[in-house]
Specification:
The structure holds 2 protein chains of 2 kinds. Chain A has helices spanning 7-40, 46-58, 61-72, 77-86, 94-119, 122-130, 135-163, 167-173, 183-192, 197-229. Chain A is mainly alpha-helical. The relative contact order of chain A is 0.15. The longest helix of chain B is centred in the middle third of the chain and has 17 residues, at 163-179. The chains are: A mainly alpha, B alpha+beta.
């Protein structure tokens, strides 16, 4: 691959994988928890939470990036909190790119998981509890396995979305080579240069390939697991 | 054995349910929406009563005064729901053993015994989606039994099955009762099922207990709302299987020294069977009729008549030590000049009698 891609392109690809991987590592557990809560529980503020989760889907990505900048920038309240208490900074760093990618991918990640919890019959949970398993254990051995196709599907979809995130990322953490210049940002940079046509083509092909494989894989996985949890295979 | 005295909110109405029952099998009977499911959910720990007490034997499950409310998974119950609720991501064997491997339960019954009792051996490796409704329900019963319950709760276990599947499962339930000493709470709106399996009965209506007691006594009362006037109302009659007549497809059953013909049954000769005779299927006659297709003519005396209201009269007739109810029009009762103590004949069509089930499945 190294002779096909330039060093800069190679580093953009690796960075994209790192950013998307990190976004999913933190996003998936949160999405599973929120999806379960939204599917099973009634609580005050449920509507607001729902709106907040899906907001990045309809908000112009620039606005999302700007909101992140205000909140998680060096002087933003959350940015200060994270850098002081956990030593994690976001502004103009790859972690910020991961945060932006995670926020933008979250609706896509959450939706299939929520649908999977909706489809996993709560009556089965009652049966499990009557047979001696606590709520938590029931979740682990009945509900979670039943929702697995949705969780995997959501993860792959979210990962692919996070790989290609552009607008919020460039607004929030700018376009710094080796730090925040992911695949899409590298592609955008090459588009601006006079002799970038070949690079644009290569990077676009890689993006296409990743998206294609991710979607195909999620579809296949979902099908096989679907058959298993429905008790058919 | 089972003690319930609770108040609580059901979906749309207030329930106030109190009864004590000692029978090996206690039935909870009532129309849909009477609070049966709420009662079951309260006993299972899935719905908290506002106040009261629930105890099974010496174990207190809920007591609002003492502040006891055992969580559902610690109540040591086995529940068979109307829909089997099998775990679709596990095969039949894992479903059956769920209470042991996941719930940490330890039953007194061995896996092999339950598999044999419910005829599950050919199903063990199967996935749940490929099972028929009756097979699913048998697996669900096995799963509940293997969790070693102090009380087996069956919430309309046959309601979602067609008549053929019902007939397939009922003998297993009877076998369960005969061979396994686990008390059962059997919820149903089908009086026929209850008469086949239950000893005691609690009748619910609009969230309240309207009557409770031994099944055979309750069904012969003419004044229990929700039971006496229902379309299935009738008597539970104990009989002894005399012989099977395969040529004519009938079984002879002796009841108090008289003989009834019922559709051919698989019940063992000389075994006791329960017959459910619906009041609306019984005709009364002053004389023994002749030249009639009817086979079952039973001599009886009028024991009691219900208070006249509406178009019908309920007539309780004594046959030896047992009773058979008849529902006739008020007009007919007046014509026959029915009085308490009057001898008469009960006519019952054989085809109207449910096939008596073997007390123990063969």
């Amino acid at each position: 691959m190294t002779d096909v891609l330039s060093n800069a392109e190679w580093s953009a690809l690796v960075l994209s994988l790192q950013v998307a991987g990190t976004a999913m590592a933190f996003g998936v557990p949160l999405a599973v928890f929120l999806a379960y809560a939204l599917s099973r529980w009634n609580f005050p503020g449920k509507l607001i939470l729902n709106v907040l989760i899906y907001l990045p889907l309809v908000l112009p990505p620039v606005v999302t990036g700007y909101v992140l900048l205000l909140g998680f920038g060096r002087t933003g309240p959350l940015g200060q909190f994270f850098s002081e208490s956990l030593g994690v900074g976001f502004a103009f760093q790859w972690t910020g790119a991961a945060l932006a990618a995670g926020v933008m991918a979250f609706p896509l990640l959450l939706r299939p998981i929520k649908l999977a919890f909706d489809a996993a019959d709560p009556l089965l949970e009652e049966a499990a509890r009557s047979l001696g398993t606590s709520r938590l254990k029931t979740f682990a051995i009945v509900t979670l396995p039943l929702a697995l196709p949705g969780i995997l599907g959501g993860t792959i979809l979210g990962f692919a979305k996070a790989m290609g995130e552009f607008g919020a990322t460039i607004t929030f953490v700018s376009n710094i080579p080796g730090e925040t210049r992911t695949l899409s940002l590298a592609l955008y940079t090459e588009l601006q240069s006079v002799d970038g046509d070949a690079a644009v083509l290569r990077l676009a092909a890689i993006s296409l390939l990743i998206s294609f494989v991710a979607l195909g894989l999620s579809e296949l996985l979902a099908r096989s697991i679907e058959a298993r949890v429905r008790g058919r295979a | 054995m089972i003690h319930v005295n609770v108040k609580g909110q059901a979906d749309t109405f207030q329930t106030e349910i109190a009864f004590d029952s000692g029978g090996p099998v206690t039935a909870v009977f009532g129309p849909s929406g009477c609070g049966k499911t709420t009662l079951i959910r309260m006993i299972c720990g899935l719905h908290a009563p506002e106040n009261g007490r629930i105890a099974i034997g010496n174990t207190v499950l809920f007591d609002s005064v003492a502040g006891v409310n055992l969580p559902a998974h610690k109540r040591d119950l086995g529940v068979v729901f109307q829909e089997a609720r099998l775990f679709p991501h596990m095969n039949v064997a894992s479903n059956l053993r769920y209470g042991v491997w996941a719930g940490g339960r330890k039953g007194s019954l061995s896996f092999a015994h339950v598999v044999e009792l419910l005829g599950l051996a050919p199903l063990l490796k199967r996935r749940t989606a490929n099972l028929s409704g009756g097979e699913k329900q048998r697996v669900a019963i096995g799963r509940a039994l293997l969790a070693g319950p102090k009380l087996l709760i069956m919430d309309e276990p046959l309601a979602s099955l067609d008549a053929a599947r019902k007939a397939e499962i009922l003998p297993f339930l009877l076998a369960l009762k005969e061979r396994i000493g686990i008390p059962m709470l059997y919820v149903s709106h089908a009086l026929g099922e209850i008469e086949q399996i239950a000893d005691d009965m609690v009748i619910l209506n609009a969230g309240k207990v309207t009557a409770a007691g031994p099944v055979a006594e309750l069904v012969n009362r003419l004044d229990v709302p929700g039971l006496s006037e229902g379309p299935d109302a009738g008597s539970l009659v104990l009989g002894l299987v005399v012989k099977h007549d395969a040529e004519w497809g009938v079984t002879h059953v002796a009841v108090e020294g008289q003989e009834l013909l019922v559709p051919l049954s698989r019940a063992v000769v000389q075994s006791q069977v329960r017959l459910h005779i619906r009041a609306k299927d019984v005709i009364l006659a002053r004389q023994r009729p002749v030249g009639i297709s009817l086979r079952n003519v039973v001599g009886a005396t009028v024991e009691r008549l219900s208070a006249p209201s509406g178009p019908f009269v309920e007539v309780l007739c004594r046959v030896g030590a047992q009773f058979i109810r008849a529902r006739i029009t008020r007009l007919a009762a007046a014509d026959l000049q029915l009085k308490e103590g009057m001898p008469l004949y009960l006519l019952v069509k054989s085809v109207a009698l449910d096939q008596p089930l073997p007390a123990v499945a063969d």
